[in-house]
């Protein structure tokens, strides 16, 4: 009976540690997702601006490349 109780306590402790580790991973991933969402939003805004600039200017065939 004592051995069984000890095994259950060890198992519960192991699960608690695992839960804390997983919680830390989820928190880190949530931060990373937030950063990536902001970057994607900025890139989409830049792409939209470039599209707007391209459409309002001369046709692409007559535009010089940016390095000229």
Protein described:
The protein has one domain (2-53). It has one helix at residues 2-56. It has 68 residues and is mainly alpha-helical.
Average predicted confidence as pLDDT: 88
User: Which stretches of 5+ consecutive residues score pLDDT under 50?
Assistant: none
Radius of gyration: 27 Å
What percent of residues adopt helix (DSSP H or I)? over 70%
Largest sheet: none
What class do helices, strands and sheet pairing give? mainly alpha
Give a quick precis of the structure.
With 68 residues, this protein is an all-alpha fold. It has 1 helix and no strands.
List the helices and strands and how they pair.
Elements: H1 2-56
Which tags fit this structure?
mainly alpha; 81% helix; rod-shaped
């Amino acid at each position: 009976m004592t051995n069984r109780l000890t095994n259950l306590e060890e198992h519960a402790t192991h699960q608690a540690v695992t839960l804390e580790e997983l919680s830390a991973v989820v928190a880190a991933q949530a931060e990373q997702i937030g950063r990536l969402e902001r970057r994607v939003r900025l890139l989409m805004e830049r792409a939209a601006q470039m599209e707007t600039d391209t459409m309002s200017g001369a046709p692409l065939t007559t535009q010089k490349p940016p390095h000229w």
